[in-house]
Amino acid sequence: MLSKNDIQILCGMFEENNHVLKREIRDEMHALIVSSESKVIHRIELVKEEIIDGIIDILDRDVYPRLDGHDQDIAQLKLATGIA
């Protein structure tokens, strides 16, 4: 049978081991969070670039040609009405 002193020693060892495990778990969780945060930030940057590229494509393909066409129409109207 264990003596009272042996039980106290075991309790101390368990408490110390518990603190070490808590610290290791905390450090591991922190590392995982930092890694995940870095991955999320990188993905956000990629998505932001994709959105900007998409907007530029829409402008180049659809908006700017229409504006050029409208500019030509306005110039013709000005000539026809003598405003130019």
- What is the string of SSEs from the N terminus onward? H
Low-confidence stretches: none
Span between N and C termini?
110 Å
Radius of gyration: 35 Å
- The portion of residues forming beta strands comes to under 5%
Helix content: over 70%
Principal-axes geometry comes out as: rod-shaped
Helix vs. strand class: mainly alpha
Residue-averaged pLDDT = 93
Please give the largest β-sheet.
none
**How many H/I helical runs?**
1
Number of strands: 0
Explain what you see.
By secondary structure, the chain is mostly helical. Helices cover 93% and strands 0% of the residues. The protein has one helix and no strands. It is rod-shaped. The mean pLDDT is 93.
Key descriptive features of the protein:
84 residues; mainly alpha
Describe the secondary structure blueprint for this structure.
Elements: H1 4-81
Q: Concise description?
A:
The chain has one helix and no strands. The chain has one helix spanning 4-81.
